[in-house]
Amino acid sequence: MEEKFVLNIIDKKQVPEAEPERQYYFMDIAKEYVGQLSKAKGSPLTFHVSTFGCQMNARDSEKLVGILEKVGYVEEDSEKADFVIYNTCTVRENANNKVYGRLGYLNGFQKKNPFMMIGMCGCMMQEPTVVEKIKQSYRFVNLIFGTHNIYKFAELIVTAIENSFGPKLGKKADRMTIDIWKDTDKIVEDLPVERKYSFKSGVNIMFGCNNFCSYCIVPYVRGRERSREPKEIIREIERLVADGVVEVMLLGQNVNSYGKNLDTPMSFAELLQEVEKIEGLERIRFMTSHPKDLSDELIEVMKHSKKICKHLHLPLQSGSSRILKVMNRRYDKEHYLELVEKIRAAVPDIALTTDIIVGFPGETEEDFEETMDVVRKVRYDSAFTFIYSKRTGTPAAAMEEQVPEDVVKERFDCLLKEVQQISAEKAGALMGQILPVLVEEQNGQDERLVTGRLSNNSTVHLPGSTDLIGKIVDVALKECKGFYYLGELV
Ligand code: SAH
Ligand code: SF4
Ligand code: F3S
Question: Beta strand pairing status for 226-227 and 206-207?
Fold first, then answer.
């Protein structure tokens, strides 16, 4: 028999309709419930958010943390916390399997802790088959929600607590709270947000994706592309800066198509120019750039900017024009190489990084050689290499000629070796220079050192105290060890 810890259920007579007021209303109720639970437990309730996947998910997790702290939960660095949330990714199949594996393990903790709730959110939850599987085989999960309604997390916490610890408890079907939306055009501003670092923050400039690359599940789980109003973005960054942030990372699945659906359309390059004007902001990064939409205007803005970091992540996916066409990427090998040339001419010491998929359906040895050719020509500072993963519902999943596993593995190893070799050769290119470093944290291995990043995103270790964290300091790059620099303050 499960215990009912929350008996004092609040009568929600005056729930505001409008957002974000509605969520602030539910935050107060959640706070009351968390208070009741903490009292029953005899100590404050704790939470732990585990994040899988990309920067979007990382930013969403910060939003969850902001609300959890606001309603009285205390962060704990362990999955034994009273509220464990998995913010999931489904971009490749193995990401999903990892989550199922760990769920069983969480159930063990939950059996020992009567106050424990398990929440699941993120991209995996936007897949109906996943939710069905959890409903069937993982009945102990307390809350499931998706990527579109994350803004109503406070409201969801209230429902989940009522269903898990309130008077309705015992009716089996009620224990699990599920709220998934297929898509939305809603963007709710002004909710509380925590951030992991005091001095840098991600900032969503848009949500969703309209590109439908034929292998990719993201458009199905993140919905249609929608941009935030520039004034909201600027306002958020101004507030962050006032709160000590010096670096922002502008986030979107394809930042280069920012602003197309706004009432008054604005290009990404124009937005960057506005962000550049914000006083006190020192560094601007962005992620991700789709090659098909990378404009000359953007390259020009990057060339003249004092704040945009010298790093561009430009996913290639494949070097074969034939495969790129079937992938629906809408650029070809020549266009990609031209872009790289233009960018390097405009910003000579820019670091270029990329994503590459090996084993897309129908990929021949010749196609793969084209990818290797681009890798050798561009010489990326680093590259994320992925084995193609079949995602049900995407056009590529239905394509014949899936490449045999052993062939893919062989190509993957060959590519990995090449990109690693090139990265190693390129590391250390800035040796001897004095460059600004944003100090981010104390070094994990040696507490006499702190660790930070150059504008091009390379890591630098230097002797120094934790007072330097969050500051941009000039560092002489003295030595290069593997992929890191060792430097000294000047
Ligand atoms: N919006 C970004 C990428 C988001 S997903 C962009 O367009 O660049 C991150 C990376 O995962 C992609 O760049 C791609 O290389 C990889 N990826 C996406 N779907 C995949 C799949 N089905 N199999 C293997 N890798 C995949
Ligand atoms: Fe996926 Fe393509 Fe959209 Fe990137 S641009 S998220 S790879 S569909
Ligand atoms: Fe994964 Fe969703 Fe990002 S599927 S890569 S977490 S948008």
Answer: antiparallel
For tokens 């994706």, name the residue. 209
| Rounded distance between C-alpha atoms, residue 380 and residue 97, angstroms | 31
Residue 316 near residue 371 (C-beta atoms within 8 A): yes
Task: Tell how far the Cα of 386 is from the centroid of ligand 1, in angstroms.
Answer: 8
Report pLDDT digits (tens) over 273-292.
Answer: 999 999 999 999 999 999 99
For range 67-81, the mean pLDDT: 95
* CA 325/CA 273 separation, integer angstroms: 33
* pLDDT score, position 1: 46
Tens-digit pLDDT profile for residues 76-129:
999 999 999 999 999 999 888 889 989 999 999 999 999 999 999 999 999 999
Return the residue whose CA atom lies nearest to atom 1 of ligand 2. 216
Confidence label for 170 from pLDDT (cuts 50, 70 and 90): low
Tell me, using a 6 A CB cutoff, whether residue 223 lines ligand 3: no
Handedness of CA 190, 192, 198, 204 (dihedral sign): negative
437: Cα separation from own chain's centroid: 23
Which amino acid residue places its CA nearest to atom 5 of ligand 2?
211
Angle formed at CA 294 by CA 293 and CA 298, multiple of 5 degrees: 130
- Sheet harboring 382-387: ordered strands across? 311-313, 351-358, 382-387
Pocket of ligand 1 (CB under 6 A): 91-92, 215-216, 218, 253-254, 288, 290, 315, 317, 355, 357, 386, 388-389, 391
Report the distance separating Cα 314 and Cα 351, nearest Å.
Answer: 10
Sign of the alpha-carbon dihedral angle for 19, 200, 310, 237: positive
